[in-house]
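[step 3/7] fold_predict: job queued, chain A
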Amino acid sequence: MKIKFASLFLVFAILLSFIFTASPVQAAAYGAKFTTSVTYQNVGEAEATVVINFYPQGDGTPITIDRPVLPAGASTSIYVGGISQLGTSFTGSAIMSSDVPLVATMVQIADAASGVKNRPLSNGFSEGANYVLIPTVLKNTFNTTSQFSVMNVGTAATSVELKFVPVSGSPVTVNVASLPAGAAQYFDMGTLPEITTPSFNGSVQLTAGAGGSIVATSMEMSTTGIEAYAFEGTGSDAATIYMPSALCKFGPLANTNTAYAVQNTSTTTAAEVTVTYSNGHTHGPVTIPAGAKASFDGCAAAAANPVGFSGSAKIEATGANIVAVGKVYGGGVSSAFLGFTGGADTIALPYVRWTEAHWNDGTRQRAYIAIQNVGSADLAAGDVTVTYLDKFGNVVGVHTLGAIAAGAKTNSNASAIGAAGAEFGAYADGSFGGGAIVAGPAGSQLAVVVRISTNIGGGNIVGEDYNGIPVQ
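[step 4/7] structure written:
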C-alpha cells in the first residue's frame, strides 16, 4: 500500500528497563520496576534497516544495537530488558535510526510483584523543541506521584531550566547545567529536593539553552493503588486542542470518566479556556494564569454531561495558547493521552491487538481505536478506512467507516474485519506484532487515540491510551 513519508529517525526520552529502583515507596505503582518494550512500525514503501543507539542516563556515549530488517508496513518490537549489552539494570534514552520512515510507541511493563497490570504507553518523537511543556505533574496529589525524563535531542550538550508551576503558590525553578547530546535526565517528584512541600499539583515548563532541542516523557503512578499511565511532553501549542475521547460515567458500571489537564503555555499572559463537548455542553470559561494549569472533568457540574455520555471535545483558549493531557479513569482504566493541535489524513498505529479466545483469561489484549474528525468539513461514509497489517506488513483486512461529522468521532477495532481479526497481532509460534493505518481523503484532518485494554478478571479491565502518529 502507498502511504506518505515520516521522519527517518525517532528519539525516545523513555523510562527504559528497571527505573527508579531506589524509590522510597516500595508498594503499589509508585516504586514499581518497569521494563520498556519499544513497538515500532515501518511506514515507508521499502524494507527498513534499523539501528538503535541507547544512552545511559546523563551519558552521551551510545550503546549501538543493530536490528533485523523490517518489511514495509510491518510492526515489531524490542524488549529492552532482554538486551544483554545494557546489563541487568538500565535507565536512559535512545535514538532509533532507519533508512526509511518509522513510527514507534513505548510500552512500560511492571514487575509482577508490584501488582500493576496496566501498561503505560507513550510515543517516540521525530524532533525536539527549545521549549517543552508537561501539562501536569503531581506529588502526593490524588494519591499519585509523577516521574518524568528530559532528553537532549540536539547535536551538542545543553543546559535545561525546569520551572514547576503549582496551581496555587510560587513557581520553583530547577537547573540542569549540562545535558549531553542523546542523554536524558530523570526527575522523581517524590524525591526531588527542590520540591519541599509535602504535595504538589501543577505543571512544568522546560527550556533548553540557546540552540538546544529537548523532548520529555512523563509517567504518573498511584502511591496507594496499581494505577499507572504515561504521556509525552510537547513543544506544540495552539489556541484550540482536540480530544477524541470524552466520557461521563460511561460503561456497564457507569464509572468511567475523562478529565483534561490544560496548561497555559504563555510565560506572561493569562488564558481564558472553555471546553465544548460533542453533545454541545460546555465547561468554562476558566481563567488559567501564565504557565499554570486547570482541570476540567467530563462529569463536573459545570459540564453537565449525562450519565453514559461518550463523545469527543474541543478545548478553546483566548489570550494565550494552551496544551492539554486527557485522562480516563474509573472502572479499572487509568490512561492518558496528549491533546491534538490538529489532525492529518494518514495516521499510523504501531501497536494494535485483538483477541476473542484469550480475552477472558487475560493473556492477550484488545485495541480500541477512537477516530475524531477535527476538520471543518463532514466526512462521508467510506471516506475513512482503517487498514489492519500483520507483523510482516501484509494487509489482514480493511474496515471502511461510516460518515463522521465535523468534530465528531467514530470507533474501530480488529473485530470489524471479521474472522481474520479474531486473534489479530498474535501468531502460532507465540510471537506478537501488528499495526494499522487510518486514512482519510487528502487534506482531511483526523485525530486518533488507541486504548490498549486487558481483562484482569473479576469484571475488571485495565487500559491505557496512546496517540496515533501522523504519517507525512
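[step 5/7] annotate
The first strand starts at residue 9 and ends at 12.
The radius of gyration is 21 Å.
exit 0
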